Amino acid sequence: MRTHIVVHEAFEAPGAFEDWAVSRGYDLGFSRVYEGDALPSSSQDIDLLIVMGGPQQPSTTVEECAHFDAAAEKALISSCVEADKAVIGICLGAQLVGESLGATWAPSPNTEIGSFPVTLTAAGREHPFLAGFEDSFRTGHWHNDMPGLTGDATVLATSAGCPRQIVAYSRYVYGFQCHMEFTPDCVEALIEHDEKELALLADRPFVQQPDQLRANDYTEMNAKLMTFLDRLAADYTGR
Q1: Which pLDDT band holds residue 223 (cuts at 50, 70, 90)?
Q2: What are phi and psi of 202, to 5 degrees?
Q3: Cα R_g (the chain), whole angstroms
Q4: Dihedral angle at the C-alpha atoms of 204, 160, 217, 234, nearest 10 degrees?
Q5: Contact 157, 191 (CB under 8 A)
Q6: What is the pLDDT of residue 185?
Q7: What is the pLDDT of residue 201?
Q8: pLDDT in tens, 101-160
Q9: Which of 4, 114, 137, 172 is the most buried (most CB within 10 A)?
Q10: Do the beta carbons of residue 37 and residue 68 sit within 8 Å?
Q11: Residue 239 has pLDDT above 90, yes or no
Q12: pTM of this prediction?
């Protein structure tokens, strides 16, 4: 499963996505755009494209952030979708996936930062890649926005703070507003970058502070993410 990960910032690491690809022995490439890496020129050598999160929005321009080219990333996503490759967007990446399919991103009803439950919808409970998951389970969160929905999109999971947590756009194309990839190292990097903002958001109902963020156990959601990815990869390669 040739996997390519687009990383927007050093503090938005791929975490369990990278751990999964490495542990399965898959070919793994990166476009660390914050370091000036180029995006792949085509989808030809990609089976699974993963687009990570970041502080940008899909509307952020190159003038506002020189290393983030939303139009180029959406073109890459569209190329992968058209070639029937697998695509997963996380947070900002999920919003870019929706945008590439014609669905406009939107502000989330609530800012969510920390570990909070998501709840599977009826469609989520029936989805083969989520089979056997509890109806409600904890995931990581760090967002203000959420992905748009196409006419064919299916919401697989929601949360108390956001109605679009896991979205299936097609059999192999997904948007994860939640962060099931978080590891302690990922969270520590985010805390270091956003500690002042966290203090300003202390009164928000779905925002945890650094001590709680560090105390959360992310291993169970990492295992669920890897199960999802294994099922997606098996289905994709078994076509």
Answers
A1: very high
A2: -60, -25
A3: 16
A4: -140
A5: no
A6: 98
A7: 97
A8: 999 999 999 999 999 999 999 999 999 999 999 999 999 999 999 999 999 999 999 999
A9: 4
A10: no
A11: no
A12: 0.98
Q: What is the 3-state secondary structure (H, E, C) of the chain?
A: CCEEEEECCCCCCCCHHHHHHHHCCCCEEEEEHHHCCCCCCCCCCCCEEEECCCCCCCCCCCCCCCCCCHHHHHHHHHHHHHCCCEEEEECHHHHHHHHHCCCCCEEEEEEEEEEEEEEECHHHHHCHHHCCCCCEEEEEEEEEEECCCCCCCEEEEEECCCCCCEEEEECCEEEECCECCCCHHHHHHHHHHHHHHHHHCCCCCCECCHHHHHHCCCHHHHHHHHHHHHHHHHHHHCC
Neighbours of 137 (CB within 10 A): 15
> Which amino acid would we find at residue 144?
N
Report the pLDDT value the prediction gives residue 203, as an integer from 0 to 100. Answer: 96
Q: Where are the domains of the chain?
A: 3-237
Distances (CA, A) of 89 to 46, 63, 68, 217: 15, 23, 15, 23
**Domain 3-237 bears CATH identifier 3.40.50.880:** yes
What whole-number distance in Å separates Cα of residue 208 and Cα of residue 101?
Answer: 33
CA separation for the pair 207, 200 (Å, rounded): 10
Instruction: Using CA atoms of 190, 36, 17, 195 in order, give the dihedral in degrees to the nearest 10.
Output: 0
- Residue 186 and residue 180: Cα distance in Å, rounded? 11
Question: What is the rounded average pLDDT of the residues 202-221?
Answer: 98
Q: What is the tens place of the pLDDT at every residue in 39-67?
A: 999 999 999 999 999 999 999 999 999 99
216: nearest Cα among 177, 237, 190: 190
Token pair in block for residue 208: 């945890």
